[in-house]
């Protein structure tokens, strides 16, 4: 894979949506353990709406597609995750405006996405949020110079699993303090699905 094109981003969203629909219950139970139990519902609704949107439009540029993904997630997903995922995609769109999604540009776009999420959620690494997975992937990608499916999926998986032993200090789970330890963060798990889907597109 040399650079991501519109059809790749479409597949990325399609595979992400499939994984989220299939694992909706898993996301819900994780959020039942340390949140309010709606993460599966929120994400399933959001990514279904993303697919509905992408299926009614024709895109020439990756940035335009990413912008519509962002807007859809922001407007259709209630809760914290919608605006945060929306921000991530909006930042990617801005970074890739009038650019090809080459490895260099795309990894920069992921870095900007992380920075946007951090800023919007006022979260840093280690607070048991989706930032943990996004930052780990961004860091790993910035050290490489080509798309590597294995590195992306392994990095995302390790970061997702690392949230289990963390104590939440942001989001609803933070209300549980020590009792948030012992469960993976729901937003980190949905972010893992997203990067696992990206890796599958890259590997094709
Ligand atoms: P809500 O918590 O509003 O019900 P969701 O359940 O859909 O929203 O999403 C919860 C996820 O959002 C968490 O698992 C976490 O990964 C992420 N999250 C929540 N608050 C923040 C924050 N301030 N910064 C970054 N991510 C956050
Ligand atoms: Mg929730
Ligand atoms: Mg909620």
Automatic annotation (TrEMBL):
Record PROSITE patterns: DHAL (PS51480)
Stored SMART domains: Dak2
Keywords per UniProt: Kinase, Transferase
Xref: InterPro entries: DhaK_L_YcgS, DhaL_dom, DhaL_dom_sf, Dihydroxyacetone_Kinase
GO molecular function: kinase activity
Record Pfam families: Dak2 (PF02734)
Gene3D superfamilies, per database record: 1.25.40.340
Superkingdom classification of source: Bacteria
Residue ranges of domain DhaL in the record: 7-200
Protein name: Dihydroxyacetone kinase subunit L
UniProt lineage: Bacteria, Bacillati, Bacillota, Bacilli, Bacillales
